[in-house]
Write a structure and sequence with these properties.
The complex is a heterodimer of chains A (469) and B (103). With 469 residues, chain A is α/β, with parallel strands linked by helices. Chain A contains 17 helices and 23 strands. Chain B is of the alpha+beta class. Classes of the chains: A alpha/beta (469), B alpha+beta (103).
């Protein structure tokens, strides 16, 4: 028996979709890799190990309400379910406790979320170099912090983590801001529209002044970043009013997020290049419906919309799915969509401002040094890739065949955007003409033993969630 | 240096990290156990043999692959600790396989 609707991912988009479906009597199956619902942004928001989670800020705390609504809505949430194949035939395969299960569904909502944009500066593979997202994950999941770390890069998430550390009394060795001066001019033209979201603007500004007041070293318009150390990181050198050097055993990098592409790519959905966000994303309609009608995408796994935007997109996708399942009429869908669509428009104007202000510089997206690793899994440097290109590998898949870049366990999640950018640069063409790796399932590491054991799940289990929590 | 901000830990479990017994809060991730015990090298890079450690801690980068209870290629950031779990940094590279097979 096929399920009516399966949702992949229990972040804000997936949770709000499940809640909306439940409001209209559709019990969805929600598969999520995490131990608890929440996704990355609301990770453990309803069950934080921190003595005072409110120090992470009101946005994070607001996630608890969505998590509670989701858990009460009657959707079946399978935690620890790592989906490794979504077929264009309605078949989904996921791995749980070392075993693969197969289900079939009429409608699929894919909510894979965002990943951090790779920041390939010299030394980025050294132990002790992590992402700002990692700092957040460790903080939210297990209340772990890195004392005296350096934060380097640009963008709201970077400043948020620094502010959270400072509020929690964790020492920060420095904030190395790479936002180029020209971004402020570029962003100015989008500022009037962004002013309609005055509260969001105010939130960002108060975050920055909070960091300034704390008195930690802040370096502006930093360039030529290099991580120091031989076998593990020992610090960061860069130019900001001359050569600077900070010692640290942990350096957190960040310069924005991009949609996690692997699942939507493996599905063969149409993708488009977004020049504002410097990333590919799935081509969808207003309701997240993709080029395959019964597959929808919501949240940052489409274009980057942030946690609030994901919440709204999840609701819109669910309304469309309800119409497709003939639970509501097209008129009802349109009527219920009016207010969320308006809210999403307002958010997207603010997003455009943020995209311009924190647009990553070319020098940080494209590795500047021939020895810098591009493919972390297969140890392929810029020089290795250039050699492959010079031997005739002009597109990402040809380069993959020739050099093994993108063939390691991460399946190109780290090197994919860099490889496309490098090839565009070498070919003197736009990245949208270069394209991206061709993706295939399985989207995780699987043992042959697991592949040999399949189990088909054809109905919802009696409520067993309470016991497993 | 990593440290925990937890004030009270209701339940701990003992795991082994590279042969050393370590007491960690129950249900923490394997990566957190490694981070708090100061043993942060997770694997060797497949070709260069250089030390690697967790990078994204959210299941994207696969840098935190370790051996858990004898099973290689486990993502330390996604697995939770369990009592008696044996965690070992992963030393598999392309060359160790060749050595073992006498190639």
């Amino acid at each position: 028996m096929a399920f009516d609707c399966v949702i992949v991912g229990a972040g804000p988009a997936g949770m709000s979709a499940a809640v909306t479906l439940a409001e209209h009597g559709v019990r969805s199956l929600v598969l999520d890799r995490g131990a608890k619902a929440g996704g990355q942004i609301y990770r453990y928001a309803a069950s934080s190990p921190l003595p005072d989670p409110s120090k992470l800020g009101p946005d994070y705390m607001s996630g608890a309400a969505l998590i509670n609504a989701f858990e009460a809505c009657g959707a079946d949430h399978v935690a620890g379910a790592d989906v490794w194949h979504v077929g264009d035939d309605g078949r989904i395969l996921y791995s749980i406790d070392g075993e693969t299960r197969q289900i079939e569904t009429r409608e699929v909502l894919v909510c894979p979320g965002a990943i951090e944009r790779p920041m390939p500066i010299p030394g980025w593979t050294l132990p002790g170099v992590m992402t700002a997202g990692a700092a957040q994950v460790m903080l939210k999941t297990d209340a772990i912090v890195a004392e005296n770390a350096v934060f380097a890069g640009s963008g709201p998430l970077l400043y948020l983590v620094v502010a959270q550390y400072l509020r929690l009394g964790v020492k920060v060795a420095g904030l190395v801001d790479t936002t180029p001066r020209r971004n402020f001019l570029q962003a100015a033209s989008a500022a009037p529209a962004a002013l309609r979201s005055a509260s969001l603007l105010h939130k960002g500004i108060s975050l920055l002044s909070e960091i300034r007041r704390a008195g930690i070293p802040v370096y502006r318009q930093s360039v030529q970043l290099k991580l120091l150390g031989q076998t593990r990181v020992s610090g960061l050198s860069f130019y900001s009013n001359g050569l600077q050097q900070i010692e640290a055993d942990t350096v957190f990098l960040h310069h924005g997020v991009i949609p996690n592409p692997n699942m939507t790519r493996a599905l063969g959905l149409d993708h488009v290049w977004n020049e504002d966000q410097l990333a590919w994303h799935v081509k969808t309609d207003l309701y997240g419906q993709s080029s395959i009608p019964y597959i929808a995408v919501a949240g940052d796994g489409g274009a980057i919309v942030g946690g609030d935007g994901a919440h709204i997109e999840g609701r819109l996708a669910a309304l469309n799915i309800l119409m497709r399942l003939e639970r509501i009429s097209p008129e009802t869908r349109d009527r219920l969509s009016r207010s969320p669509v308006g809210e999403l428009r307002r958010l997207s104007q603010f997003r455009r401002f943020i995209d311009r202000l924190y647009r990553p510089s070319d020098a940080l997206r494209l590795p500047q040094d021939e020895d810098t690793p591009v493919c972390r899994c297969e140890d392929q440097s810029v020089a290795d890739l250039r050699a492959g290109f010079q031997l005739g590998a002009r597109d990402p898949n040809a380069l993959k065949s020739r050099t093994r870049c993108g063939m390691g366990p991460c399946q190109g999640r780290q090197c994919g955007p860099i490889v496309s950018d490098l090839l565009a640069n070498w070919r003197g063409e736009h990245v949208s003409d270069v394209g991206y790796y061709r993706m295939r399932s399985p989207q995780r590491l699987l043992s042959l033993e697991e592949l040999s054991r399949f189990k088909t799940v054809s109905s919802l289990q009696p409520r067993a969630r309470e016991a497993s929590r | 240096m990593f440290r925990s901000l937890r004030e009270n830990v209701p339940e701990t479990v003992q795991v082994s990290v590279n042969g050393h017994p370590v007491q960690v809060p129950a249900r923490q991730t394997v990566w957190s156990a490694l981070a708090l015990s100061g043993q942060t090298v997770t694997r060797k890079s497949a070709l260069s043999g250089e030390d690697r450690s967790a990078y994204c801690t959210m299941g994207v980068c696969f840098e935190c692959l370790v051996e858990i209870d004898g099973e290689p290629n486990q993502q330390a950031c996604l697995r939770e600790v369990a009592p008696g779990m044996v965690i070992v940094s992963q030393n598999i590279t392309e060359f160790t396989m060749a050595d073992r097979d006498g190639l």
